[in-house]
Amino acid sequence: ILCLASAAAALDFKYHHTEELEEYLRGVHASYPSLTHLHSIGRSVEGRDLWVLVLGRFPTQHKIGIPEFKYVANMHGDETVGREILLHLIDFLVTSYGRDPVITRLLNNTRIHIMPTMNPDGFESTKVPDCYYTRGRYNRNGEDLNRNFPDAFENNSASIQPETQAVMDWIKNETFVLSANLHGGALVASYTFDNGNPVTGSLKGYSRSPDDDVFIHLAKTYSSNHASMYKGTGCDNRQTFPEGITNGYSWYQLEGGMQDYNYVWGQCFEITLELSCCKYPPADQLEKFWRDNKIALIEYIKQVHLGVKGQVTDKNGNPIPNAIVEAKGRPHVCPYRTNEQGEYFLLLLPGTYVINATVPGFKSMLKTVEIPDNTGNFSALKQDFSFPEVSDQIRSRVASCPKTPLYQELARASAAVKPTIHILVLVTAMLAIFK
């Protein structure tokens, strides 16, 4: 056992290719079998496993009341820093459990999923590390995985790739509450929406979600705990990000992105973390990248305990799946629903809210809650709902949101033709002035 623990802890600051990465993950699981669960959620185009290491007191399965969190890195194969710092995060978590009270409580109350690489083929195809763009960005089929998901605003014509499908299935099969995907090429925390239309404010250069306040908080949590991201200086004089954060659409429009998919279809709040100006920096810089991100990675995980959580049950105490539970004033275009255990998780900042629970066919139930900041206690506020008129023979129908654009205003004012609209407005205004 001591030998296994020693082997698992021997993690150098270097780039770990596929075989080394797998060997390390297997070693960690062998050394900490009760704290970790290692599994593959699918395979890449070239047949490489998409490994996920789960950490927590109950690593093998979801437990009622314990939220699910995930980190995904190396979605673009040539953006490599996230891949390595997630391995060091794993090392830090398992070696701190039972020794550090904060990490111990975090793992006892959170189920953490870590995928070091979503695009192993792209990583392996990057033969010459480069700070800028390389073909390794794409998967083996030449597809950009962060343009490959269904889009809430326009039809995405890209063919769904094996890596994308594996992640979509993974999201569907877990009750993820909070997530981040780790990229490189800039230094900023970017939040949803990445795409948009006039309904979400795109004509003003900002695409606002119903939970914009929460997303700003999440992005600031990471940037403010990072060694330098909060300064907002970006990577050159042309690019600045106040407080180290940006709305995705404000930065640049992106169709088929993973963070929007998580939020709309996965009921999971996800932000995109750009961690290095250089996409594939020299290995001797990796230790500094780990030091710069270590505190931010932990503080961000804690945010999964924001807001309110609970169960929706019938008169016999049985869980009601697919009940809609949302905070009044912030409805989601795809209504947020309870899982198979009747659970819901809503990320909300401290304050007073009215929570609306609805079982289709029955009268909605409203409850006013005062939400404190419970992240330090590793548990969101608990608020259950019991429907006395609902029996276990009557259950909410299984509901799924279509994978077609959900913000239909786009058909009348497509973001793709925004420049044309702006030019027409400008020309009209100029003609009026000259007249």
TrEMBL record:
Single GO biological process annotation from the record: protein processing
Peptidase M14 domain: residues covered: 14-304
CDD domains, per the entry: M14_CPM, Peptidase_M14NE-CP-C_like
Record Pfam families: CarboxypepD_reg (PF13620), Peptidase_M14 (PF00246)
A GO term from the CC aspect: extracellular space
A GO term, aspect molecular function: zinc ion binding
InterPro entries the record matches: CarboxyPept-like_regulatory, CARBOXYPEPT_ZN_1, CPM_N, Peptidase_M14, Peptidase_M14_domain
Cited SMART domains: Zn_pept
UniProt keyword annotations, A-Z: Carboxypeptidase, Glycoprotein, Hydrolase, Protease
UniProt-annotated catalytic positions: E274 (proton donor/acceptor)
Keyword Glycoprotein: yes
Keyword Acetylation: no
Record-linked PANTHER family: CARBOXYPEPTIDASE M, PROTEASE M14 CARBOXYPEPTIDASE
Family per record: Belongs to the peptidase M14 family.
Name by which UniProt lists this protein: CBPM Carboxypeptidase
Organism (species): Toxostoma redivivum (California thrasher)
